[in-house]
Write a structure and sequence with these properties.
about 50% strand, globular, mainly beta, three-stranded antiparallel β-sheet, about 110 residues
Length: about 110
């Protein structure tokens, strides 16, 4: 399966890859980013996010209201989270910690 390098993993410094439909760190350190706020990210968005750039994301979903909205996000660090697998096993994962804001008209016109 063909692998595409999208950037550098901010957690361990290894290459961050796209393999088929899956995004992950080459060293399997547990860092993943493929969607934010319910919106799937494409390869360019992931590349720019990992590169420290602001990224416009459309299709974000609200937990309180119907419909979607857009956000501009910039990665500020790596966040750790815990989850339970279906078999009851406790696991730890890592994803992007981001600063977010609503887009202004100037950003949308780029």
């Amino acid at each position: 399966m063909k692998k595409k390098v999208l950037g550098i993993c901010p957690r361990c410094g290894s290459r961050y890859l796209r393999t088929g439909d899956w995004h992950s760190c080459e060293a399997r350190c547990g860092f993943r980013v493929g969607d934010l706020f319910g919106a799937k990210l494409d390869d360019d968005q992931i590349h720019n996010l990992l590169g420290g750039k602001e990224v416009l994301i459309s299709g974000c979903k609200s937990t309180k209201r119907k419909g979607t909205f857009a956000l501009v996000v910039k990665m500020t660090g790596v966040r750790q989270f815990a989850y339970t697998k279906r078999n009851g096993q406790q696991r730890t994962g890592y994803d992007a910690e981001v600063a977010r804001r609503f887009p202004d008209k100037k950003f949308e016109d780029k």
